[in-house]
Predict the structure.
Amino acid sequence: MTTVLKTEDLRKQFGELTAVDDVSIEIDDSEITSIIGPNGAGKTTFYNLLTGVLQPTAGSIWLRSDESGGDGGRNADGPSDGLRDITDAEPHEVAQAGLSRSYQITNIFEGLTVRENVRVARISHEETRLDFRSRANENEAMESEIEDILDLTGLTGIADTACDTLSHGEKRTVEIALALAIEPNVFLMDEPTAGMNPTEVTEIVSLIRDLDADLDATFVVTEHNMDVVKDISDRIVVLAEGSILADGTPTDVLTDERVTEAYLGSDSA
Ligand SMILES: Nc1ncnc2c1ncn2[C@@H]1O[C@H](COP(=O)(O)OP(=O)(O)OP(=O)(O)O)[C@@H](O)[C@H]1O
Ligand SMILES: [Mg+2]
């Protein structure tokens, strides 16, 4: 059991509205954690804080990172060894530190092929690295890493297909491949099954399981589809009105009366 991501009293206010209300959480590398909650509970805002897209009003964020140095002595004051304070980091620094995300809304280059999209993501990640290997070796290594990512995500067969001709489910899988291109330690997925048909849902769930087994990355998923949540989660954290309402095993959390009430009290189910 190792903590890979941690928040302390993390808070985000939009004017009077407290979208994320003093959330303290530790994500363990041995579990797939789902973050669920009614519409407007603060899930996407929480992800935006973690990934540096939004600046928190208060609190801190810590990430286990393979990178040594770069952070000076800040870790010395940290709550636990090996965690790096990324509270003030910019999105590209967060990605560089190993926290990756696939979005709720598609953000791929439609005119490029699947492989070209993965290559772009990989190159932009490589360019931010201070790495002095020779160009030739770098390109060769990169091409083989691109093929690995295509293989892991089951996209090899459509690697040369332009993305604008792909199905919605295929595009969501490409997004996962793009997020993998930064070699994440922690992979945040925001509603990976949104807009998918039942066949695509089954495929994406089995892909997430396979990736979790094959990679060192720790998966954190927000999801409205309760069948998916039950299926993939080792742990479920319920957010309601920005606060943690429940946190535990699927059996405990999904039978918790407060959780049922939170869902019934909102427009979503
Ligand atoms: N940029 C913003 N400015 C003002 N209010 C915002 C902003 N982003 C989100 N909110 C508000 O913060 C609250 C939390 O929204 P958020 O999108 O994080 O919820 P969510 O749990 O992801 O919901 P959903 O399940 O619908 O995706 C909502 O009341 C939303 O209207
Ligand atoms: Mg959301």
Remarks:
- The pocket of adenosine-5'-triphosphate (ligand 1) is lined by residues 14, 17, 19, 37, 39-45 (CB under 6 Å).
- The beta strands are 3-14, 17-28, 33-36, 58-64, 83-85, 99-102, 186-190, 218-222, 235-240, 243-248.
- The chain has two domains: 1-98+186-269, 107-182.
